Amino acid sequence: MNVTKYIGMDVHRAMTVSAVLSATGKVVAEAIIETKGSVILDFIQSQRGTLWVTFEEGTQAAWLYDLIQPHVAKVVVCDPRKISTQGNKADRPDAKRLAELLRTNALTAVYHGERSTRALKELARSYSAIVGDSTRIKNRLKAVFRARGIDNSGGGIYTTEERECWTSKLEAGAVRLRVQRLWRELDTLDVLRAEAEKDMVVEARKHPSTRILQTVPGIGPVRAALILAFALTPHRFRSKRQFWGYSGLAVVTRTTAEYELVKGRIRRTKKRPALRGLNPNCNRVLKDVFKGAAGTAANGPWRAYFESKVASGNKPELVLLTIARKIAAITLALWKKGERYDETKLTMHAV
């Protein structure tokens, strides 16, 4: 008799704690094993029946997914931020909790499945990390001057030509040395950023979807590469609203007591839900991509639309959000259909 078993794995750098549940929720096996490929596979293959496995998204998730997936019926890499941790927290209870949530289909899965874009994703992660490091160095530079009451608005503080002028505004000694080292760090990161960007764009050109994405307003080679690297495939998103949520462009609302009884009939109240801003649980890179694309489009092909909306009394930041959502929706639709952007088919009143 072929029975289904549910395996929860609490994975750590050195050791992995596993719990195996039956279809009725009974613990049929537990193990503490070394976090090593051959040892994990030996444990998986020692279990009989149809196996479902789950573990949390983390540093080792991609490696584990590729290792285990060919040997079991289903692998679910779950989002740890959406798991309630009531009661005691320890490795063995965590493994049992994961197995039970898998058995009851109560886990939110993190997408793992596109091998063709693995190289691009690694290059995109490298590029994004360098960009983030550059931003931190720039913030530290400005903080040094701001702490001394020196106005440093604009980007002149980063340029090589103005550095001597900025240095003269500081007292001699340790502060100047600190700023000079920050500039040297920034110069090094600029070189690495250019290299990382080139490698990422070259890899992205190997994928036909890149040419489609680049036809969308505001999306160039770098943004197209980042979209492909972090979204992976458009078919994982059923609708544009799901894509908005993943990209950090979905609006979070809060409401309660939605229904009332009127003359014996239940009807929805006219109370409007309260807005709570954009969803924070998202892919930060894609959010930056579409917000940046909105700024480019608002100063380019969609400038007339942007200015007309602002002139009508709308806040510029909300108009940019609307444009970002429209760009994301167009990107998803064209990517799924394999079609290029056609401006004649766009109705701007729907933006």
Walk me through the structure.
47% of the residues lie in helices and 15% in strands. The protein is α/β, with parallel strands linked by helices and 351 residues long. The strands form 3 sheets. The chain has a 5-stranded mixed beta sheet with strand order 3-2-1-4-5. Strands 6-9 form a two-stranded antiparallel ribbon. Helix 6 (174-204) crosses helix 8 (221-231), helix 8 (221-231) packs antiparallel against helix 10 (284-298) and helix 9 crosses helix 12 (316-337). The radius of gyration is 26 Å and the shape is globular.
Quick description:
The chain is of the alpha/beta class and 351 residues long. The chain has twelve helices and nine strands.
Helices and strands, with pairings:
Blueprint: E1 4-11, E2 15-21, E3 27-34, H1 37-45, E4 50-56, H2 61-68, E5 74-78, H3 91-103, H4 118-146, H5 163-168, H6 174-204, H7 209-213, H8 221-231, H9 240-246, E6 251-254, E7 259-262, E8 265-268, E9 274-278, H10 284-298, H11 303-311, H12 316-337
Parallel strand pairs: 1-4, 4-5
Antiparallel strand pairs: 1-2, 2-3, 6-9, 7-8
Given helix and strand content, the structural type is alpha/beta
The helix fraction, in percent, is: 40-55%
- SSE order, one letter for each helix or strand: EEEHEHEHHHHHHHEEEEHHH
The unreliable regions are none
> Spatial order of the strands in the main sheet?
3-2-1-4-5
> What Rg do the Cα atoms give?
26 Å
Average pLDDT level: 92
* Major beta-sheet overview: 5 strands, mixed
The 3D shape can be described as: globular
Number of domains: 3
Number of helices: 12
Number of strands: 9
Task: Kindly report how far apart the N and C termini lie.
Answer: 57 Å
Strand proportion? 5-15%
